Each structure stands twice: as structure tokens, then as C-alpha cells.
Amino acid sequence: MKFVKLGSTGLDVSRLCLGCMTFGDPDAGTHPWTLDENASRPIIRHAVEQGINFFDTANSYSAGTSEVIVGKLLKEFTRREETVIATKVFFPANMWQGSERPNEQGLSRKAIMANIDASLKRLGTDYVDLYQIHRWDYHTPIEETMEALNDVVRAGKARYIGASSMFAWQFAKAQQVAKAHGWSRFVSMQNYLNLVYREEQREMIPLCLDQGVGLMPWSPMARGRLTRPHGQQTERTKTDVSGQSFYEATETEDGRVIDVVEQIAGERGVPMAQVALAWVLAQRGVSAPIVGASKPHHLDDAIAALDLVLSNDEVKRLEAPYVPHAVTGFA
């Protein structure tokens, strides 16, 4: 496994981050395709055996059961000091159960302090390496949020803080507020980037490059759409309502990109997933794309992409069919 520094920090992370939304109680939430503890075990074990040390989850994934499973299995297969655990805050842990209560969600001081403690308890650890805000909170002053996150770091409950899924102006504002007060700043941006959604290249990525912020693109394979021929369905694509909303407006246009991925994969004799991921890995500023896996061989395909170097001609072919998309992924 190859390792890199996360942005401009000294933190060593594997070149791939294992996304843990796949793991959790299938009955907790709206994702019936998630894997319970027994089904998750071989995948997390395989990730550790292949040298992956970077794991990303969230308080809201499967009503917190993702954190429980990830924390338990990492204890089985690795040592805490060798592992980089990232989790997120914004959505309530029970968001899919329709029983939201006051102060359970958002980025108020009260919500952040309560959620970091709850996440640590579920993960079975006394600190996380990277604590990320899952979205921008339009109802809380950014000064309140950044001060609370700084206090989480000072309390030793998080080593670094990061952000996810917001407009570039929002990220810049948060960083400036933290800088002005001498508070901890975000070291990473978990943004939505893949061959069929490249809007982040306009403002967010240039901003992060300028500020030395590491990129952790989520959905580098467009929730599986870039891993199979256009139109082919899986259980997840049939039931993933949010994923459908991301792509339904540009289904035809995206299909042209997917067709090129399929063509190049055929020419190279590799799975489509490797081609799609190789493109993301080659983007400037990317520290570690977040990859999901429901089977051990999915990890093998992702790891193989680390050694797949696309030619200039292949990159041009992959990028040529792209059309601008409406900004999405922030809600």
C-alpha cells in the first residue's frame, strides 16, 4: 500500500480510504444493502491486511451502527495507533427513523459536544483522528461551530478536523474565521468528485490546492455507476433514492462517459472500476479517495488502480463527453 500525507499535515494515510457507509445494521435506516457485523468482518480484515489504515464513517450511517461495527472490527484486526479513524457530524444519528429531537443535529456547540462523545462511545475509542462536519449549517453561526471544533481538538477528542460537501465560499469563510481566532483549521475536504460529476474542479479544488487542504473525494465511482455498463442495475442502484436524484437529470449524458470508461477498460483488460478510480487518483490535490466495498475483491480492484496510469489520450477521451451539471450533493 502507498501512503501519503493528508494535505499539508504530517499525518500518514493510505492512498485509499475505506468508506464505511456500507457497514451497519440493514434494519437501522433506509439502506437495506448495508452489511451487518459478520458480513463486514472479511472486508475490513482484508482492508487491514492490504495495508489500508484510513477508515471513514459517520454518526448517521445506519443510525450509528456503522461506527459500532467499524470500531469493534478495527480492534480485532489492527492497533489503534496504526489506524486513522475519521467520522462526521451534522445529521442526527437517528435521521432515518423520523424521530429527530431538538439539538440532535446541526453544528451548534451543544450538538457537536454531544455527538463527539456519542461517536467515541460507539467507536470504542477515546479520540478520532479526523472529525469532519458533514454539511454546512445554515442555522448556526460559523464562529460557534469553529470554536466548538477547536475545543474538541484541545480536549484531545480529535487530532484534526475536516469538512465535507459545501460551496467553496463557505469553506473559505470557515477557514478564515478559524485563522482570525487562532483556532484549528480544516485539514481536509471530503468532496463529491468523479468522471460524471466534476463541478468541484471549478472552485473548491483550486481553493484546496491553494490552502494545502487534502482532498478525500467521495463517490469516486458514482455510487457504482462507473463500475458497470450503462443501464445495468444492482440492488443498491434500485433502492438508493439519493443516488438516483444525483444522476437522473443527466442520465443520457452520463451514459456517454460510462461508455468510454467501458471501452478503455476493455482495451486495458481491467475492470471499469479501475479506470474510473485511476482518473480520480490522478487529480491534483487528491490525498485519498473514499472507496466502498461490499466484497473483498472490490478492494483488490481499487488497490490495483493505484498502479494504473492513464495516458493523455485516454484522459482526453474520458473527459470529452462531460457536460456541466447542476451543483448537487450538499443537501
From TrEMBL:
Record-annotated NADP-dependent oxidoreductase domain positions: 15-320
A GO CC term?
cytosol
Q: Which Gene3D superfamilies match?
A: NADP-dependent oxidoreductase domain
Q: Which UniProt keywords apply?
A: Oxidoreductase
GO terms for MF = oxidoreductase activity
Q: Does the keyword Oxidoreductase apply?
A: yes
**Entry keyword Oxidoreductase:** yes
Name residues in a coiled coil: none
Name the UniProt record assigns to this protein = Predicted oxidoreductase
